[in-house]
Amino acid sequence: MSRLADRTVLVTGATGGMGSATVRALAAEGAHVGVADISAELTARLAEEVGGTSLVVDVTSPDSVTAGVEALAAARGTIDVLVNFAGIVDPRRMDEIEPEAWSRVFDVNVRGTWLMCTAVIPHMPRGGSIVNIGSRAGLVGGTTSGASYAASKAAVICFTKSVAKFAAPLGIRANVINPGCIETPMLDHFAPEVVAAMPGQAALGRLGTPAEIAESVIFLATDASSFMTGAQLNVNGGSHM
User: What residue stretch is flagged as signal peptide (predicted)?
Assistant: First the structure.
């Protein structure tokens, strides 16, 4: 039985490693997926593959966010689930990164998450679910992941609690997934020796897969997690306990 039949799910950062795996998994569960990302070509290609709606969205732009959200809501009536994958990483230390680069990380990772949540909630029915994406780095601080990225993900984790409190009277839940080191193209930002050491940070001794993150998203998107809100789901192989 499809767990998300007749549900409309909006996914930002949809063409990335974790995002694209999640889009495909959601569609396989019967969801109509709003495939939102900044690349028109990649977004259209993935949306066609899964029978979803292509949305070119820059999550740092209020006008772009509003246009994308309203287009999907007009086409589908409501948006049942929002998944905020859109994010960038800067692997540099706090004494290496320029102020403009620091701000850019926060613009995408934090401001983008805030803008999306604010825009979608008015179109979300009772029983809706918001799934934000934090990080293990947001719990332990930036080492290989960079200070700006870690700080931005800590902000997303805390902001999700605010969303949960705000949206609870509307019958909407909000939770955050904190992935550990996952096999995605984002690892290309790091030096080879840093990537080689990542599996050893996890008790399970390996990197996670995008499919494992996708299953976690589906859990939080469905009624299987109906009594969870403001919660963190740490999917990190035991690299942080």
Answer: none
